[in-house]
Amino acid sequence: MSQHRTTAELAAVRADRAAARVVTGLDLPEDPLAGRAGRRGDGRAQITGMPALLLLASLTVSMLASSGAPTPLYAIYQQRWGFTPITTTIIFGIYAITVLVALLVFGRLSDYTGRRPVLLAAIAVQAASLVVFATAGGVGDLIAARVIQGISAGAALGAIGAGMLDIDRERGALANALTPGMGTGTGVLLSSLAVQFLPAPTRLIYLVLLGVLTAQAIGVLLLRETVTRAPGALRSLVPDVSLPAATRGPMLAAAPVVFAVWALAGLMAALGPELVHALTGSASVLAGGADVTLMTVAAIVATFTLRNTAATTVMLTGIGALIGGSAIVLAALGTGSAAVLFLGTAVSGFGFGAGFQGGIRTVVPAAKPHERAGVLSLLFVLSYLGMGGPVVIAGYAVVHGQGLVGAAREYAIGLIVLAVFALAALARTSRTRRVRAA
Protein backbone atom coordinates (compact mmCIF):
# COMPACT_ATOMS: atom_id res chain seq x y z
CA MET A 1 0.00 0.00 0.00
CA SER A 2 1.32 3.41 -0.88
CA GLN A 3 2.34 5.62 2.02
CA HIS A 4 1.34 8.80 0.12
CA ARG A 5 -2.01 10.47 0.74
CA THR A 6 -4.50 11.50 -1.93
CA THR A 7 -6.11 14.92 -1.75
CA ALA A 8 -9.39 13.32 -0.70
CA GLU A 9 -7.71 11.36 2.09
CA LEU A 10 -6.03 14.48 3.44
CA ALA A 11 -9.36 16.31 3.37
CA ALA A 12 -10.94 13.44 5.30
CA VAL A 13 -8.18 13.63 7.91
CA ARG A 14 -8.78 17.35 8.37
CA ALA A 15 -12.52 16.79 8.62
CA ASP A 16 -12.02 14.05 11.24
CA ARG A 17 -9.85 16.38 13.32
CA ALA A 18 -12.29 19.27 13.02
CA ALA A 19 -15.21 17.08 14.09
CA ALA A 20 -13.23 15.67 17.01
CA ARG A 21 -12.37 19.21 18.10
CA VAL A 22 -16.07 20.15 18.09
CA VAL A 23 -17.18 17.03 19.98
CA THR A 24 -14.41 16.84 22.56
CA GLY A 25 -13.29 20.44 22.86
CA LEU A 26 -9.71 19.21 22.56
CA ASP A 27 -7.03 20.62 20.31
CA LEU A 28 -5.88 17.32 18.87
CA PRO A 29 -2.27 17.01 17.69
CA GLU A 30 -1.33 17.06 14.05
CA ASP A 31 -2.26 13.88 12.25
CA PRO A 32 -0.12 11.22 13.99
CA LEU A 33 -0.60 8.83 11.11
CA ALA A 34 1.75 10.58 8.73
CA GLY A 35 4.49 8.57 6.99
CA ARG A 36 4.81 5.00 8.33
CA ALA A 37 2.03 5.59 10.84
CA GLY A 38 -0.45 6.32 8.11
CA ARG A 39 -3.11 3.85 6.95
CA ARG A 40 -6.53 5.47 6.68
CA GLY A 41 -9.99 4.35 5.71
CA ASP A 42 -10.22 0.60 5.01
CA GLY A 43 -14.00 0.85 4.71
CA ARG A 44 -14.73 -0.61 8.17
CA ALA A 45 -12.71 1.29 10.74
CA GLN A 46 -14.62 4.04 12.50
CA ILE A 47 -13.06 4.72 15.91
CA THR A 48 -10.35 7.39 15.87
CA GLY A 49 -8.92 10.16 18.06
CA MET A 50 -9.84 10.34 21.73
CA PRO A 51 -12.41 7.48 21.64
CA ALA A 52 -9.71 5.23 20.18
CA LEU A 53 -7.25 6.30 22.87
CA LEU A 54 -9.80 5.56 25.60
CA LEU A 55 -10.60 2.16 24.09
CA LEU A 56 -6.93 1.17 24.04
CA ALA A 57 -6.43 2.45 27.59
CA SER A 58 -9.44 0.41 28.75
CA LEU A 59 -7.95 -2.65 27.06
CA THR A 60 -4.75 -2.32 29.11
CA VAL A 61 -6.91 -2.02 32.22
CA SER A 62 -8.91 -5.16 31.46
CA MET A 63 -5.82 -7.16 30.43
CA LEU A 64 -4.01 -6.35 33.68
CA ALA A 65 -7.21 -6.62 35.71
CA SER A 66 -7.35 -10.21 34.47
CA SER A 67 -3.78 -10.76 35.70
CA GLY A 68 -4.58 -9.15 39.08
CA ALA A 69 -7.86 -10.99 39.64
CA PRO A 70 -6.29 -14.27 40.93
CA THR A 71 -4.41 -12.47 43.76
CA PRO A 72 -7.28 -12.42 46.32
CA LEU A 73 -8.26 -15.95 45.27
CA TYR A 74 -4.96 -17.63 46.12
CA ALA A 75 -6.09 -18.12 49.73
CA ILE A 76 -9.11 -20.07 48.46
CA TYR A 77 -6.96 -22.10 46.10
CA GLN A 78 -4.52 -22.85 48.95
CA GLN A 79 -7.36 -24.16 51.13
CA ARG A 80 -8.70 -26.32 48.31
CA TRP A 81 -5.45 -27.80 47.08
CA GLY A 82 -3.12 -27.42 50.07
CA PHE A 83 -0.13 -25.63 48.56
CA THR A 84 2.35 -23.32 50.33
CA PRO A 85 3.24 -19.61 49.77
CA ILE A 86 6.21 -20.61 47.63
CA THR A 87 3.77 -22.20 45.17
CA THR A 88 1.90 -18.89 45.01
CA THR A 89 5.08 -17.00 44.18
CA ILE A 90 6.11 -19.65 41.63
CA ILE A 91 2.74 -19.29 39.88
CA PHE A 92 3.24 -15.54 39.90
CA GLY A 93 6.84 -15.86 38.73
CA ILE A 94 5.85 -18.16 35.85
CA TYR A 95 3.40 -15.51 34.69
CA ALA A 96 6.12 -12.85 34.79
CA ILE A 97 8.57 -15.08 32.88
CA THR A 98 5.96 -15.86 30.24
CA VAL A 99 5.22 -12.16 29.80
CA LEU A 100 8.96 -11.57 29.37
CA VAL A 101 9.26 -14.22 26.66
CA ALA A 102 6.14 -12.96 24.88
CA LEU A 103 7.39 -9.37 24.99
CA LEU A 104 10.69 -10.42 23.45
CA VAL A 105 9.04 -12.54 20.74
CA PHE A 106 5.92 -10.51 19.91
CA GLY A 107 6.85 -7.07 21.21
CA ARG A 108 7.82 -5.60 17.82
CA LEU A 109 5.27 -7.48 15.71
CA SER A 110 2.66 -4.71 15.60
CA ASP A 111 5.24 -2.29 14.15
CA TYR A 112 5.09 -4.47 10.99
CA THR A 113 1.60 -6.04 10.90
CA GLY A 114 -0.34 -3.15 12.38
CA ARG A 115 -1.73 -2.76 15.90
CA ARG A 116 -5.18 -4.22 15.32
CA PRO A 117 -4.31 -7.81 14.25
CA VAL A 118 -1.99 -8.24 17.22
CA LEU A 119 -4.60 -6.90 19.64
CA LEU A 120 -7.35 -9.17 18.32
CA ALA A 121 -5.11 -12.23 18.65
CA ALA A 122 -4.06 -11.18 22.17
CA ILE A 123 -7.68 -10.74 23.25
CA ALA A 124 -8.53 -14.23 21.97
CA VAL A 125 -5.63 -15.76 23.92
CA GLN A 126 -6.58 -13.81 27.06
CA ALA A 127 -10.14 -15.12 26.75
CA ALA A 128 -8.79 -18.67 26.63
CA SER A 129 -6.83 -18.09 29.84
CA LEU A 130 -9.97 -16.86 31.62
CA VAL A 131 -11.81 -20.03 30.60
CA VAL A 132 -8.99 -22.15 32.06
CA PHE A 133 -9.08 -20.13 35.30
CA ALA A 134 -12.87 -20.47 35.57
CA THR A 135 -12.69 -24.26 35.19
CA ALA A 136 -9.43 -24.84 37.14
CA GLY A 137 -9.27 -28.05 39.16
CA GLY A 138 -5.73 -27.88 40.55
CA VAL A 139 -2.37 -26.13 40.64
CA GLY A 140 -1.52 -27.38 37.15
CA ASP A 141 -4.53 -25.56 35.74
CA LEU A 142 -3.50 -22.34 37.51
CA ILE A 143 -0.02 -22.59 36.02
CA ALA A 144 -1.45 -23.29 32.55
CA ALA A 145 -3.81 -20.33 32.82
CA ARG A 146 -0.96 -18.07 33.92
CA VAL A 147 1.21 -19.16 30.98
CA ILE A 148 -1.59 -18.48 28.49
CA GLN A 149 -2.32 -15.16 30.19
CA GLY A 150 1.34 -14.16 30.09
CA ILE A 151 1.52 -14.81 26.34
CA SER A 152 -1.51 -12.58 25.81
CA ALA A 153 -0.27 -9.75 28.02
CA GLY A 154 3.21 -9.82 26.52
CA ALA A 155 1.86 -9.63 22.98
CA ALA A 156 -0.65 -6.89 23.80
CA LEU A 157 1.24 -4.44 26.02
CA GLY A 158 3.65 -3.13 23.41
CA ALA A 159 0.96 -2.88 20.73
CA ILE A 160 -1.52 -1.11 22.98
CA GLY A 161 1.06 1.31 24.31
CA ALA A 162 2.41 2.12 20.86
CA GLY A 163 -1.13 2.54 19.53
CA MET A 164 -1.92 5.12 22.20
CA LEU A 165 1.26 7.02 21.35
CA ASP A 166 0.35 6.89 17.65
CA ILE A 167 -2.93 8.65 18.43
CA ASP A 168 -1.56 11.29 20.80
CA ARG A 169 2.01 11.21 22.05
CA GLU A 170 1.44 13.32 25.18
CA ARG A 171 -1.83 11.79 26.30
CA GLY A 172 -0.64 8.38 25.16
CA ALA A 173 2.44 8.57 27.39
CA LEU A 174 0.22 9.54 30.34
CA ALA A 175 -2.17 6.67 29.61
CA ASN A 176 0.76 4.23 29.35
CA ALA A 177 1.84 5.23 32.84
CA LEU A 178 -1.66 5.31 34.37
CA THR A 179 -3.28 2.15 33.09
CA PRO A 180 -1.00 -0.67 34.40
CA GLY A 181 -1.61 0.25 38.04
CA MET A 182 -5.26 0.99 37.34
CA GLY A 183 -5.72 -2.42 35.75
CA THR A 184 -4.02 -4.40 38.51
CA GLY A 185 -5.89 -2.50 41.23
CA THR A 186 -9.23 -2.94 39.49
CA GLY A 187 -8.73 -6.67 39.12
CA VAL A 188 -7.74 -7.16 42.75
CA LEU A 189 -10.60 -5.01 44.04
CA LEU A 190 -13.29 -6.65 41.93
CA SER A 191 -12.02 -10.10 42.80
CA SER A 192 -11.97 -9.24 46.53
CA LEU A 193 -15.54 -7.95 46.36
CA ALA A 194 -16.62 -11.11 44.54
CA VAL A 195 -15.07 -13.31 47.24
CA GLN A 196 -16.67 -11.27 50.02
CA PHE A 197 -20.18 -10.85 48.66
CA LEU A 198 -20.91 -13.06 45.64
CA PRO A 199 -21.29 -16.80 45.03
CA ALA A 200 -18.72 -18.88 43.12
CA PRO A 201 -16.08 -16.10 43.05
CA THR A 202 -13.43 -18.36 41.50
CA ARG A 203 -15.63 -18.57 38.41
CA LEU A 204 -17.72 -15.41 38.41
CA ILE A 205 -14.90 -12.87 38.25
CA TYR A 206 -13.36 -14.55 35.21
CA LEU A 207 -16.68 -14.75 33.39
CA VAL A 208 -17.27 -11.02 33.99
CA LEU A 209 -13.83 -10.19 32.61
CA LEU A 210 -14.51 -12.46 29.63
CA GLY A 211 -17.62 -10.42 28.84
CA VAL A 212 -15.67 -7.16 29.06
CA LEU A 213 -12.97 -8.46 26.69
CA THR A 214 -15.61 -9.60 24.20
CA ALA A 215 -17.06 -6.09 24.06
CA GLN A 216 -13.58 -4.61 23.66
CA ALA A 217 -12.80 -7.00 20.81
CA ILE A 218 -15.74 -5.53 18.90
CA GLY A 219 -14.30 -2.07 19.55
CA VAL A 220 -10.87 -3.14 18.27
CA LEU A 221 -12.49 -4.40 15.06
CA LEU A 222 -13.75 -0.85 14.52
CA LEU A 223 -10.43 0.85 15.26
CA ARG A 224 -8.73 2.73 12.47
CA GLU A 225 -5.26 1.25 11.98
CA THR A 226 -2.39 3.58 12.88
CA VAL A 227 0.54 1.73 11.27
CA THR A 228 1.09 0.86 7.63
CA ARG A 229 2.03 -2.78 7.07
CA ALA A 230 5.69 -3.29 6.31
CA PRO A 231 7.86 -6.30 5.44
CA GLY A 232 9.82 -7.97 8.23
CA ALA A 233 7.05 -9.38 10.45
CA LEU A 234 8.62 -12.84 10.63
CA ARG A 235 12.06 -11.40 11.36
CA SER A 236 10.53 -9.34 14.16
CA LEU A 237 9.66 -12.58 16.01
CA VAL A 238 13.34 -13.28 16.60
CA PRO A 239 14.09 -11.83 20.07
CA ASP A 240 16.15 -8.68 19.81
CA VAL A 241 17.15 -6.73 22.92
CA SER A 242 18.93 -4.00 20.99
CA LEU A 243 17.66 -0.45 21.26
CA PRO A 244 17.53 2.33 18.68
CA ALA A 245 20.57 4.55 19.22
CA ALA A 246 18.50 7.56 20.27
CA THR A 247 16.85 5.64 23.15
CA ARG A 248 19.94 4.03 24.69
CA GLY A 249 20.96 6.91 26.93
CA PRO A 250 17.41 7.51 28.21
CA MET A 251 16.94 3.76 28.83
CA LEU A 252 20.18 3.64 30.83
CA ALA A 253 18.86 6.42 33.04
CA ALA A 254 15.40 4.88 33.50
CA ALA A 255 16.24 1.16 33.82
CA PRO A 256 17.27 0.97 37.51
CA VAL A 257 14.27 3.04 38.58
CA VAL A 258 11.77 0.98 36.58
CA PHE A 259 13.23 -2.30 37.89
CA ALA A 260 13.07 -1.11 41.51
CA VAL A 261 9.46 0.13 41.45
CA TRP A 262 8.20 -3.02 39.75
CA ALA A 263 9.99 -5.14 42.37
CA LEU A 264 7.68 -3.41 44.86
CA ALA A 265 4.64 -4.23 42.71
CA GLY A 266 5.69 -7.89 42.66
CA LEU A 267 5.81 -8.10 46.44
CA MET A 268 2.39 -6.48 46.89
CA ALA A 269 0.71 -8.57 44.19
CA ALA A 270 2.08 -11.93 45.35
CA LEU A 271 2.35 -11.64 49.14
CA GLY A 272 0.57 -8.39 50.08
CA PRO A 273 -2.78 -9.98 51.09
CA GLU A 274 -1.09 -12.63 53.24
CA LEU A 275 1.03 -9.97 54.93
CA VAL A 276 -2.09 -7.97 55.82
CA HIS A 277 -3.71 -11.11 57.23
CA ALA A 278 -0.62 -11.81 59.34
CA LEU A 279 -0.60 -8.32 60.88
CA THR A 280 -4.35 -7.88 61.32
CA GLY A 281 -5.27 -11.43 62.28
CA SER A 282 -8.26 -11.06 59.96
CA ALA A 283 -9.06 -13.63 57.28
CA SER A 284 -11.05 -11.06 55.28
CA VAL A 285 -10.16 -11.28 51.60
CA LEU A 286 -11.35 -7.70 51.18
CA ALA A 287 -8.81 -6.47 53.76
CA GLY A 288 -6.03 -8.35 51.99
CA GLY A 289 -6.97 -6.98 48.60
CA ALA A 290 -7.21 -3.44 50.00
CA ASP A 291 -3.42 -3.26 50.37
CA VAL A 292 -2.81 -3.94 46.67
CA THR A 293 -5.63 -1.59 45.68
CA LEU A 294 -4.19 1.17 47.90
CA MET A 295 -0.82 0.83 46.20
CA THR A 296 -2.36 1.16 42.74
CA VAL A 297 -4.54 4.13 43.74
CA ALA A 298 -1.47 5.92 45.10
CA ALA A 299 0.36 5.14 41.84
CA ILE A 300 -2.49 6.63 39.81
CA VAL A 301 -2.48 9.78 41.98
CA ALA A 302 1.27 10.15 41.48
CA THR A 303 1.02 9.66 37.73
CA PHE A 304 -1.71 12.26 37.36
CA THR A 305 -0.35 14.90 39.73
CA LEU A 306 3.19 14.73 38.29
CA ARG A 307 2.17 14.57 34.62
CA ASN A 308 3.52 18.08 33.85
CA THR A 309 6.72 17.73 35.90
CA ALA A 310 10.08 17.11 34.23
CA ALA A 311 10.71 13.39 33.70
CA THR A 312 13.98 13.31 35.66
CA THR A 313 12.31 15.06 38.60
CA VAL A 314 9.46 12.55 38.46
CA MET A 315 11.91 9.64 38.63
CA LEU A 316 13.74 11.25 41.56
CA THR A 317 10.40 11.68 43.34
CA GLY A 318 9.62 8.03 42.71
CA ILE A 319 12.93 6.89 44.17
CA GLY A 320 12.48 9.06 47.26
CA ALA A 321 8.95 7.78 47.84
CA LEU A 322 10.05 4.18 47.34
CA ILE A 323 12.79 4.56 49.95
CA GLY A 324 10.46 6.34 52.39
CA GLY A 325 7.63 3.87 51.87
CA SER A 326 9.90 0.85 52.34
CA ALA A 327 11.23 2.34 55.57
CA ILE A 328 7.66 2.79 56.82
CA VAL A 329 6.87 -0.83 55.90
CA LEU A 330 9.91 -1.92 57.94
CA ALA A 331 8.53 0.05 60.89
CA ALA A 332 5.16 -1.65 60.45
CA LEU A 333 6.75 -5.10 60.45
CA GLY A 334 8.69 -4.21 63.60
CA THR A 335 5.63 -2.94 65.47
CA GLY A 336 3.07 -5.31 63.98
CA SER A 337 0.88 -2.35 63.01
CA ALA A 338 -1.42 -2.85 60.04
CA ALA A 339 -2.19 0.88 59.93
CA VAL A 340 1.49 1.72 59.50
CA LEU A 341 1.74 -0.98 56.83
CA PHE A 342 -1.06 0.67 54.85
CA LEU A 343 0.69 4.03 55.18
CA GLY A 344 3.94 2.52 53.90
CA THR A 345 2.04 0.91 51.02
CA ALA A 346 0.51 4.26 50.05
CA VAL A 347 3.86 6.07 50.06
CA SER A 348 5.55 3.23 48.17
CA GLY A 349 2.68 3.15 45.67
CA PHE A 350 3.22 6.85 45.00
CA GLY A 351 6.84 5.98 44.29
CA PHE A 352 5.76 3.19 41.93
CA GLY A 353 3.56 5.54 39.91
CA ALA A 354 6.16 8.29 39.77
CA GLY A 355 9.08 6.01 38.95
CA PHE A 356 7.29 4.18 36.16
CA GLN A 357 5.84 7.34 34.62
CA GLY A 358 9.25 9.01 34.73
CA GLY A 359 10.80 6.01 32.99
CA ILE A 360 8.25 6.01 30.17
CA ARG A 361 8.52 9.76 29.65
CA THR A 362 12.31 9.55 29.60
CA VAL A 363 12.58 6.75 27.03
CA VAL A 364 9.57 6.74 24.72
CA PRO A 365 9.79 10.28 23.24
CA ALA A 366 13.17 9.36 21.77
CA ALA A 367 11.65 6.50 19.71
CA LYS A 368 10.29 6.92 16.19
CA PRO A 369 6.70 5.79 15.45
CA HIS A 370 7.76 2.47 13.91
CA GLU A 371 10.08 1.79 16.88
CA ARG A 372 7.57 2.48 19.66
CA ALA A 373 6.16 -1.01 20.20
CA GLY A 374 9.65 -2.53 20.40
CA VAL A 375 10.96 0.11 22.81
CA LEU A 376 7.87 -0.12 25.03
CA SER A 377 8.16 -3.91 25.03
CA LEU A 378 11.75 -3.69 26.28
CA LEU A 379 10.60 -1.33 29.04
CA PHE A 380 8.01 -3.91 30.07
CA VAL A 381 10.63 -6.68 29.88
CA LEU A 382 12.62 -4.75 32.44
CA SER A 383 9.47 -4.18 34.50
CA TYR A 384 8.53 -7.84 34.63
CA LEU A 385 12.09 -8.86 35.44
CA GLY A 386 11.78 -6.63 38.49
CA MET A 387 8.33 -7.96 39.28
CA GLY A 388 8.96 -11.69 38.85
CA GLY A 389 12.52 -12.42 39.93
CA PRO A 390 12.74 -10.98 43.46
CA VAL A 391 9.31 -12.20 44.51
CA VAL A 392 10.17 -15.86 43.79
CA ILE A 393 13.22 -15.46 46.05
CA ALA A 394 10.91 -13.98 48.69
CA GLY A 395 8.56 -16.96 48.42
CA TYR A 396 11.48 -19.33 48.97
CA ALA A 397 12.52 -17.33 52.06
CA VAL A 398 8.97 -17.52 53.45
CA VAL A 399 8.98 -21.32 53.35
CA HIS A 400 12.62 -21.96 54.26
CA GLY A 401 13.30 -20.29 57.55
CA GLN A 402 12.42 -16.59 57.38
CA GLY A 403 8.65 -16.81 57.65
CA LEU A 404 6.31 -14.33 56.00
CA VAL A 405 7.18 -11.29 58.13
CA GLY A 406 10.91 -12.03 58.07
CA ALA A 407 10.93 -12.44 54.30
CA ALA A 408 8.96 -9.21 53.87
CA ARG A 409 11.45 -7.41 56.11
CA GLU A 410 14.40 -8.56 54.00
CA TYR A 411 12.51 -7.68 50.83
CA ALA A 412 11.86 -4.13 52.10
CA ILE A 413 15.56 -3.73 52.92
CA GLY A 414 16.37 -5.00 49.43
CA LEU A 415 14.00 -2.43 47.92
CA ILE A 416 15.80 0.37 49.76
CA VAL A 417 19.15 -0.90 48.46
CA LEU A 418 17.73 -1.10 44.92
CA ALA A 419 16.33 2.42 45.19
CA VAL A 420 19.66 3.83 46.42
CA PHE A 421 21.42 2.11 43.52
CA ALA A 422 18.82 3.56 41.11
CA LEU A 423 19.40 7.02 42.58
CA ALA A 424 23.16 6.73 42.08
CA ALA A 425 22.73 5.40 38.52
CA LEU A 426 20.31 8.19 37.63
CA ALA A 427 22.64 10.85 39.02
CA ARG A 428 25.60 9.40 37.12
CA THR A 429 23.68 9.19 33.84
CA SER A 430 22.33 12.72 34.20
CA ARG A 431 25.83 14.05 34.93
CA THR A 432 27.24 12.27 31.86
CA ARG A 433 24.52 13.70 29.63
CA ARG A 434 25.18 17.22 30.93
CA VAL A 435 28.89 16.85 30.23
CA ARG A 436 28.21 15.60 26.69
CA ALA A 437 25.79 18.43 26.08
CA ALA A 438 28.35 20.97 27.28
Number of separate helices: 15
Spans where pLDDT lies below 50 across 5 or more residues: 1-42
Quote the beta fraction. Answer: under 5%
Radius of gyration computed on alpha carbons: 21 Å
The mean pLDDT is 80
Q: Give the biggest beta sheet.
A: none
The rounded distance between the terminal residues' Cα atoms is 45 Å
Helix content: over 70%
Estimate the global geometry from the Cα principal axes: globular
Order of helices and strands: HHHHHHHHHHHHHHH
By secondary-structure content and strand pairing, the structural class works out as mainly alpha
The count of DSSP E runs of length 2 or more, i.e. the number of strands, is 0
Any overview of this molecule?
- There is one protein chain.
- Helix content is 80%, strand content 0%.
- With 438 residues, the protein is an all-alpha fold.
- α6 packs antiparallel against α9 and α11 packs antiparallel against α14.
- The protein is globular and about 55 Å long.
- The termini are far apart.
- The N terminus is likely disordered.
